[in-house]
């Protein structure tokens, strides 16, 4: 029974993988992902159901179109096989007779993350329409997890999402500041801007998460009331933030009851929460605008992606990280981020050595690192502690 169930879920996975190939190709082009039926790009023939059998059809046809002989990229069967493997592994790791519906949100979330990573690989864009709903699936889906499954509770998923977004948005703000040679940003968004992120990051470092959320909220409300962006110059906010970090590291914030961990968590949660709220706000604005004008504007171009402003990391990575943080919780996400940085460095060095020149975006590394942390995180942490002799 168990083997049959795992095989069934794997087959469903290969079909979802086939659909993912369509989504990854069409979504960035603004085309419908359901119509028309897939065609051969060589001869334009509509593919028959037989041509669409995952992996097997590609093998049977030896990677060529049945009619015109045009090559079919090996990536298509690889993606289908990857989905089958991921679905089968999850069905095996979270048996339905023991963990009930735990599997369902996991399958949905992993599918969305894999599609986002592949689109990022192709286009350097992470569509809001995939990443932001994935954050919601990660948090809401946590209600379906069985308590014994070792997955985050809804509260842990929400905190994990905020902290993950916070880490990346602070790298984005600080990196941007360095790349601008410490000049203030040109960005003047209203009513929801990255100024709320900055203020929340600072307040959180001094007072913990609730002060962070209150300060960010105050910035948004004041901007709304003033009908213009109420802002503090970014170089000054982050100079104060660094000072507050040193104060927290010195243990002095404990004097008013905020330990180092809560200072760091508060800063990240505040920054991440307002980065995500702002992202959701501007996504909704984008959606409303694209309803009135056709064709729709580029999916991932949230207004935060200030053109001409150098950024250390794309804002799409902030939302992708949030989805991963919701899936893994805080610790799992941080292990995954570390793995992503290491894998990214290894791939970068390999490209230098073997002459590959194509820039690989960070999103796919984030997803791969997170999946590895999910599968092997506990073993990795145990191995590392063992290495330290703890
Ligand atoms: Zn053809």
Descriptors for this entry?
390 residues, mainly alpha, 3 domains, 13 helices, 67% helix, binds zinc ion
Structure commentary:
The chain is an all-alpha fold. The chain has three domains: about 1-85; about 95-150 and about 325-390, no CATH class; about 180-310, no CATH class. It is about 65% helix and about 0% strand. Helix 8 (about 195-205) packs antiparallel against helix 9 and helix 9 (about 210-225) runs parallel beside helix 11 (about 260-290). The two termini are about 45 Å apart. Bound molecules: zinc ion. Zinc ion (ZN) binds near residues 65, 67 and 68.
Topology record:
Elements: H1 2-26, H2 56-60, H3 75-93, H4 96-99, H5 103-123, H6 128-140, H7 154-179, H8 194-207, H9 209-226, H10 234-249, H11 260-292, H12 315-354, H13 362-388
Helix pairs in contact: 1-3, 1-5, 3-5, 5-6, 5-12, 5-13, 6-7, 6-12, 7-11, 7-12, 8-9, 8-10, 8-11, 9-11, 12-13
Number of domains: 3
Average pLDDT confidence is 90
Strand count, sense and barrel status of the largest sheet are: none
Note poorly predicted spans. Answer: 295-307
Gross geometry:
globular
- The first-to-last residue Cα distance is 43 Å
Give the beta-strand count: 0
Strand content: under 5%
Q: What compounds are bound to the protein?
A: zinc ion
- Tally of helical segments: 13
| Rg (CA only) | 23 Å
Helix content range: 55-70%
Structural class: mainly alpha
């Amino acid at each position: 029974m168990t083997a049959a169930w795992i095989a069934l879920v794997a087959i469903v996975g290969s079909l979802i993988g086939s659909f993912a190939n369509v989504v990854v190709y069409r979504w960035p082009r603004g085309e419908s992902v359901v119509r028309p039926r897939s065609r051969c790009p060589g001869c334009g023939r509509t593919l028959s159901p037989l041509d669409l059998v995952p992996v097997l059809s590609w093998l049977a046809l030896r990677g060529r179109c049945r009619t015109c002989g045009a090559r079919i990229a090996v990536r298509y069967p690889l993606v289908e096989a990857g989905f089958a493997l991921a679905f089968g592994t999850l069905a095996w790791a979270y048996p339905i007779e023991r963990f009930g519906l735990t599997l369902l949100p996991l399958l949905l979330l992993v599918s969305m993350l894999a599609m986002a990573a592949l689109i990022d690989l192709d286009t350097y864009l992470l569509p809001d329409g995939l990443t932001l709903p994935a954050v919601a699936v990660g948090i809401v889906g946590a209600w379906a997890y069985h308590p014994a499954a070792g997955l985050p509770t809804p509260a842990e998923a929400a905190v994990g999402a905020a902290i993950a977004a916070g880490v990346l948005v602070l790298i984005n703000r600080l990196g941007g500041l360095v790349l601008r040679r410490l000049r203030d940003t040109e960005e003047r968004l209203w009513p929801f801007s990255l100024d709320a992120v900055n203020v929340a990051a600072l307040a959180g470092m001094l007072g913990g998460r609730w002060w962070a959320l209150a300060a960010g909220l105050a910035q948004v409300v004041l901007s709304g009331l003033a009908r213009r962006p109420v802002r503090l110059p970014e170089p000054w906010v982050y100079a104060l933030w660094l000072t507050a970090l040193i104060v927290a590291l010195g243990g002095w914030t404990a004097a008013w009851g905020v330990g180092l961990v809560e200072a760091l968590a508060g800063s990240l949660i505040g920054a991440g929460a307002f980065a995500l709220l702002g992202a959701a706000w501007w996504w909704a604005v984008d959606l409303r605008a694209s309803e009135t004008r056709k064709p729709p504007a580029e999916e991932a171009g949230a207004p935060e992606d200030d053109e001409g402003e150098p950024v250390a990391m794309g804002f799409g990575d902030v939302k992708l990280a949030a989805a991963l943080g919701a899936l893994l919780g805080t610790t799992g996400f941080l292990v995954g981020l570390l793995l992503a940085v290491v894998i990214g460095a290894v791939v970068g060095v390999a490209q230098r050595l073997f002459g590959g020149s194509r820039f690989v975006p960070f999103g796919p590394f984030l997803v791969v690192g997170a999946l590895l942390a999910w599968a092997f995180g506990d073993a990795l942490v145990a191995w590392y502690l063992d290495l330290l002799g703890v």
